[in-house]
């Protein structure tokens, strides 16, 4: 075991593929590591593409100091909202109309819930099964949309002013490029399962990043970048891994993320997060 960290650290932990496995299983080793680190005075924040509505109680029950959500659009510390960058009602309305006109089913990601378009359940089934297979789901070929997205709120108004980002089904890479051309003032990306295949596009406010969210949180805590540790596995984690004083890549991370990290730990399914905490001296 490494010697204990000499000062309290701010630990930013990605969720999918880092805190939980691609099958959405939470390793007991990760739970114990986070609880032990917090008992020693370190602070731990899930830093994720998920919105607050996608953070179930069993994750909060670990004991967390807040969260960074929406890939950096939302920052919360001990119940206090420090940042919330969300789409305007006008942009939301225009995006929903444009995506619908292109025949692309979508869902809105807001802290208040996840709101799918009427045809998403049926149209998304092939992509959802590919996504589940990529995340190691044992019954991926028979999984339903409801199993992968259990928190959907159907038949809701799709024009809202609290949307962190919109995810939509991709029929091909040309959809993503067309979205960039139609809405150049917004931020565009894509996501999938293991291997990060592009199954879905997403669009949100420009300037949103996990690195910027880290700066907002650290300023509030009067902490420096040198106090911050970022742990992740995907390309969207790259900016915070490069930005923070210490960057950690999971064993299942992409090659690019591993190259940028100060430390490469084991796979998420092999207690990688707990081993990283140990090697960094966060466990005493």
Describe the model.
The structure is a single chain. The protein has 284 residues and is an alpha/beta fold. Helices cover 31% and strands 21% of the residues. The chain has 11 helices and 13 strands. It has a 5-stranded parallel beta sheet. Strand 11, helix 9 and strand 12 form a beta-alpha-beta unit. The longest helix is centred in the middle third of the chain and has 13 residues, at 89-101. The protein is globular. The relative contact order is 0.19. The mean pLDDT is 93.
Secondary structure: number of strands = 13
Q: N-to-C terminal Cα separation, in Å?
A: 9 Å
What would you report as the Rg, rounded to the nearest angstrom?
Answer: 18 Å
Largest sheet: 5 strands, parallel
* Rough outline: globular
Biggest sheet strand line-up: 2-1-11-12-13
Query: What are the low-pLDDT stretches, counting only 5+ consecutive residues below 50?
Result: none
H/E element order: EHEHEEEHEEHHHEHEEHEHEHEH
Strand fraction band?
15-25%
Structural class: alpha/beta
Please give the share of residues in helix.
Answer: 25-40%
Question: Could you give the topology of this structure?
Answer:
Layout: E1 10-13, H1 28-39, E2 43-46, H2 57-60, E3 66-69, E4 74-77, E5 80-84, H3 89-101, E6 106-110, E7 113-116, H4 120-123, H5 125-134, H6 145-148, E8 163-169, H7 173-182, E9 186-191, E10 200-205, H8 210-221, E11 228-232, H9 238-243, E12 246-249, H10 255-260, E13 263-264, H11 272-279
Helix pairs in contact: 1-11
